[in-house]
TrEMBL record:
Source organism per UniProt: Rubripirellula lacrimiformis
Enzyme class: hydrolase
Keyword set includes Coiled coil: no
EC code: 3.6.3.-
Gene that encodes the chain: lolD_4
Name the UniProt record assigns to this protein: Lipoprotein-releasing system ATP-binding protein LolD
Domain ABC transporter: 5-227
GO molecular function: ATP binding; ATP hydrolysis activity; transmembrane transporter activity
Length: 227
């Protein structure tokens, strides 16, 4: 198997309000293979979201390298990273981040890398159908339930045919039964389109279904107990 993502010697610090810097991540090595489905678990505040943001190129590390599909992210300009993210990564945010003024189908189309052709509309319709929202294409987020908004966010993340789907506790806001069906939906869509997944979850029943469970404590030396 080929590695889709390689994280090497990554350190990320943040300025602390009281002065000084806090080392949040110190990751010697972390890998995801092509098409692999990985669940990331770990204590609150441990740096899971920060790691997702680094992989998505929304943040840059203090040092180290992140290579996705052969491209080293830290070598790209900010604009280059934005373009790279749009073509390679789908991101399901914890709070969905749908644009309120746009309908469901418009939000899905906004997840596409290019243009506004007929083909894109067909794919957006198809994705909305796949997440069970064919009859809600013209509804705005405020006219949808939380679970429906979440499914629009999933369709949007898949819209650009990414190589890697990142999802930050995408089931935190729905009941356990819906959580399971939403997760199954994401996993089967990713399998169908050969998209690798890295998903943050606190739910060990959900994590257990993945190819691999990665505990942040095991890969992040910043969380190691001090002697
Ligand atoms: N922009 C920032 N400036 C300063 N500190 C930050 C910033 N972003 C995150 N942190 C700190 O980094 C640490 C890790 O935060 P992060 O959101 O990555 O954790 P998490 O594992 O995703 O937590 P949770 O499971 O609660 O969502 C926290 O201690 C947080 O206070």
């Amino acid at each position: 198997m080929t590695n889709l993502l390689e994280v090497n010697d990554v350190i990320k610090t943040f300025a602390q309000p009281g002065g000084g810097r806090l080392t949040v991540l110190d990751i010697p090595q972390f890998r995801i293979e092509e098409g692999e489905q990985v669940a990331l678990v770990g204590t609150s505040g441990g740096g899971k979201t920060t790691l997702l943001h680094l992989i998505a190129g929304l943040l840059t590390p203090d040092s180290g390298s992140l290579t996705l599909d052969g491209t080293e992210l830290t070598r790209l300009s900010e604009q280059g990273r934005d373009r790279f993210r749009a073509s390679k990564i789908g991101y399901v945010f914890q709070t969905f981040n749908l644009l309120p003024a746009f309908s469901a189908i418009e939000n899905v189309r906004l997840g596409m890398t290019f243009g506004s052709g007929r083909q894109d509309t067909e794919r957006a319709k198809d994705l909305l159908g796949r997440v069970g929202l064919a009859d809600r294409a013209n509804y705005r987020p405020s006219q949808l339930s939380v679970g429906q908004q979440q499914r629009v966010a999933i369709a949007r993340a898949l819209a650009g045919k990414p190589r890697l789907l990142l999802a930050d506790e995408p089931t935190a806001n729905v009941d356990p039964v819906s959580a399971e069906s939403v997760l199954e939906l994401i996993r089967s869509s990713c399998r169908d389109e050969d998209i690798a997944m890295l998903i943050v979850t606190h739910d060990m029943d959900i994590a257990a279904k993945f190819d691999r469970i990665e505990r942040l404590e095991d890969i992040n030396r910043a969380l190691a107990p001090t002697a």
